[in-house]
Amino acid sequence: MPYRMIQVGTGGMGAAWCKMILPPFVKDGLIEVVAAVDINPVVLENAQAGLGLSPDRCYTDIQRAFDENPADFCTIVVPPAAHEMVVDIALAHDLHILSEKPIADTMEASVRIAKKVRRAGKKMGVTMSHRFDQDKTTLREELRSGRYGALDYLVCRFTCDCRRFGSWGRFRHEIPDPLMVEGAVHHLDILADLAGALCDTIYAQTWKPDWGEFAGDAQALVMMHFQNGARAFYEGAKTNAVGLNCWGQEYIRAECEGATLILNSRALERFDYDPARKWPPRREGQGEPVPLRERPRWAHGWLVEQFLAWLDGGEPMPTNVWDNLQSVALIFSAIESSRSGQPVRVREFLERYVREA
To answer: 242 CB contacts (<8 Å, ≥6 apart)?
Structure first.
């Protein structure tokens, strides 16, 4: 019997949920979408076209949508500042929750949400889709294989030309810290996942160039030191003259004892250590190609699979809301580091908010 769900948010990324992410699960009889909500009536057409909902099941009033349509869970695909409001309504209707990242737009709200979900005895997952994408999963599994010895450090580059207002979605140009909250939330999470350990300390500088039409900081350089001794460097930019490694096309280099692995625009190659070779140096593109792993679904699709298996009584998905506080703590501790000019101990930062919430 399919799980009944309410889709909250049908414009922007919500359109992708309506037209690409959910339809395969509806077709397979795993999900029945009983209603959709958006404050913009125009984008509710996405739910009608992609999910086959009738107009009377499409709402601009979220309270009515939940009151009139019994369901098992809801999705949250709206700007982060609205997440806690939707969570409150979902929990009041005894629903489980699957939400887009981040948990919320502040550390305080993120911890409040996690505690509310735990008290209600409900399940909430967060769609950290980049971590579960095909190319990043392949790199993770290569590093976990042990074939290359110890990991020394990681480098991640995410650079885009979205300097003009609205080119990265209007709300991202209007919020504080758009790069950290809407971009680096994925990338710092990926780096911690690849490192295979929690982040111990983080040091960041974030800023906004004069030519960037953002209200908040859209550029960042971040250093991370992990509990297992590995390190990482992150370059994030939304206002560059050209996008070299934009959304989903990130550059990640892993420097290991026995090899260098380079992921660039979804292609992975390996350069094995050869003590006899000193000159000439090898260039990117001259390494040994590493085939990407195969599975039926990736990214959002794979995460929806995990969420449904959890609802079926399986193990909690890795991005359950409580564990995902670790990822949220990375971005907000980086913001605190940039403002204070000092490194931040991530565990102490998170524990402070959990204690005070």
So the answer is: 159, 161
Q: What is the tens place of the pLDDT at every residue in 2-51?
A: 999 999 999 999 999 999 999 999 999 999 999 999 999 999 999 999 99
Q: Say if CB 244 and CB 159 are below 8 A apart.
A: yes
Q: How far apart are alpha carbons 297 and 302 in whole angstroms?
A: 5
Residue for token pair 């409900």: 122
Interior CA angle at 117 toward 114 and 119, to 5°?
Answer: 105
Name the residue among 144, 126, 150 with its Cα closest to residue 328. Answer: 126
Per-domain residue ranges of the chain = 3-130+299-320, 131-290
Residues 247 and 106: their CA atoms lie apart, in Å, by: 23
For residue 134, list its beta bridge partners: none
Q: Which fold has domain 3-130+299-320?
A: Rossmann fold (3.40.50)
CATH label, 131-290, candidates 3.50.50.60, 3.20.20.70, 3.30.360.10, 3.10.180.10: 3.30.360.10
Q: Over the stretch 86-135, which tens digit does the pLDDT of each residue have?
A: 999 999 999 999 999 999 999 999 999 999 999 999 999 999 999 999 99
Per-residue pLDDT band for 309 (boundaries 50, 70, 90) equals very high
pLDDT at 282: 86
pTM as predicted: 0.94
